[in-house]
Amino acid sequence: MNTPIDIGRMLSKLPLFQQLRDSEIFSLTAGTREIELAKGQMLFQKGYLLDGFYVAVSGQIKLAFSSAQGNEKVVALIGPGQSFGEAITFLEKPSPVFAQALVDSRVLHIAKQSIFAAINGDSAFACRMLAGLSMRLHGLVQDVEDYSLRSSTQRVIGFLLQLVGAAASGATECELPASKHVIASRLNLTPETLSRILHNLAEFGLIAVKGKKITVLDAEQLKRFNP
Amino acid sequence: MNTPIDIGRMLSKLPLFQQLRDSEIFSLTAGTREIELAKGQMLFQKGYLLDGFYVAVSGQIKLAFSSAQGNEKVVALIGPGQSFGEAITFLEKPSPVFAQALVDSRVLHIAKQSIFAAINGDSAFACRMLAGLSMRLHGLVQDVEDYSLRSSTQRVIGFLLQLVGAAASGATECELPASKHVIASRLNLTPETLSRILHNLAEFGLIAVKGKKITVLDAEQLKRFNP
DNA sequence: AAGGAAACTTGATGCACGTCAAGGTCGTGC
DNA sequence: GCACGACCTTGACGTGCATCAAGTTTCCTT
Questions:
Q1: CATH code of the domain containing A67
Q2: What are the pLDDT digits (tens) for B31-78?
């Protein structure tokens, strides 16, 4: 069984809470509960109202929406240490996305009122929340830019480069953080198209694909690659 | 010439600042300056660092980015009372978009330090900033959803319905808030396509177009219209 | 190890939307 | 009033990516 002490320790490791005093962490702990999710399990549906936000501890969560025709679009992939749901918590509006565990996962739920208390007690915490939301916004604007004025190949390349980090121009191996189906959706394309693009890039000698392992052979050239 | 008193009055009318005390408004005023923009004038370029954010007082500002190939994409249209640039102010990152006046406009620039002071003095203000950013995020998620799983016709319909508001099913006239070129870009399509779609909807008897004036003849049927 | 279901690949085909090019319409200045 | 330019419309055409339909591989189950 997990004790409140565990939760306190986990909270204090999160970027968002790292600089809080022990007493503040303690009061946050009171409003926090741990949730275990099995692979494929829904955390919340589209349209739900949240009374607090979440932080992933382990596993992987996908945020997505699905259209009337049943096809779904992945908006974000959440890994350990990342939070989600802040915006709708503050807005008190129904969530535009649903959250589902891609693998067995553990998340923390932090009650809205605990957050408000922390904001009241510590304006630096408020600033950190603001910075967190700003980063999220920044990322979404980036997504919109990608979707609207880059080709599918360019989006895949951007994704790969981000995956290997700002590494040097040598060969770098990395592993896809999820199934190709999920990655494709995140990049706003079909699995078929992603498959073809990867095949293509491999043909040009820019990358090597072996299952989920992808080796970027020449980052510089990949950056410059223009279909 | 505009005196500080004018600025104070304008600030206190903005949603973001409405509940601040007079003394707080006064200290914000000190960090605020007014900027006049001629039609077509740039407020800031893509890549700029902002030392504060903006609030439109009159006129209309477009936020957009442009690709290497020169075509540009409108992310948001800012009208009087709306603020923009908060996120990059908090993040201290280069702006992913540029801001340009579509008509002669006046905006206020509120210095970062004044905002931080206000957050420190009033946690309710911090919450309002958080809510503001959350709303922005919500809107962007909505945009991403529209772009990725709705057809161009559906996007235009959504735009028109939003324009006439949640009005009853009768005929409602409204005016496009900008040139069709700008609207098209905001909806992520070319002017040609927008033109064709409007023509199409008119042919089906759902709307009537006369220059910038558009009359939604049957909102209910328009909602249900499926190409 | 064998079987089966996911996940992935590959090819053939289609269509929504962009692109290019040629008018048309409106407003604005001389 | 006329002429010029900005904005918009209309048509013909091209294409990037989705869709549909088989395979093939991977991996999980028993």
A1: 2.60.120.10
A2: 999 999 999 999 999 999 999 999 999 999 999 998 877 789 999 999
C-beta of residue B56 within 8 angstroms of C-beta of residue B82 = yes
Per-residue pLDDT of A63-113, as tens digits, reads: 999 887 778 999 999 999 999 999 999 999 999 999 999 999 999 999 999
**Residue numbers 111-150 of A with CB closer than 7 A to any atom of strand D:** none
Looking at the structure, do residues B155 and B60 belong to the same domain, yes or no?
Answer: no
Residue A182 sits in which domain range? 150-224
The tokens for A154 are 């360019």
What's the CA gap between B139 and B73, in Å, rounded?
Answer: 16
Q: Which of residues 180-209 of A touch strand D (CB under 7 A)?
A: 188-190, 192-193
3-class DSSP assignment, residue B43: strand
Q: CA B65: distance to chain centroid?
A: 14
> Does residue A9 sit in the same domain as residue A103?
yes
User: Which chain A residue has the Cα nearest residue B124?
Assistant: A120
DSSP B108-159: EEEEHHHHHHHHHH-HHHHHHHHHHHHHHHHHHHHHHHHHHHS-HHHHHHHH
Beta bridge partners of A84: A54
Q: Is the CB of A195 under 7 A from strand C?
A: yes
| Tokens at A130, concatenated | 């603001």
Quickly give B144 CA vs D7 C1' distance in Å: 29
Q: How far is C-alpha B139 from the chain's CA centre?
A: 10
Instruction: Please determine, for residue A199, whether its predicted confidence score (pLDDT) is greater than 70.
Output: yes
CATH number at residue B206: 1.10.10.10
Q: Residue A28 — φ and ψ, nearest 5°? A: -65, -40
Q: Are residues A83 and A182 in the same domain?
A: no
B63/D2 CA-to-C1' distance in Å = 38
Same domain, yes or no: B94 and B183: no
Say if CB A152 and CB A225 are below 8 A apart. no
User: What's the whole-model pTM score?
Assistant: 0.91
For the stretch A30-54, pLDDT in tens is 999 999 999 999 999 999 999 999 9
Q: Do B137 and B183 belong to one domain?
A: no
Cα B7 from Cα B3, distance rounded (Å): 7
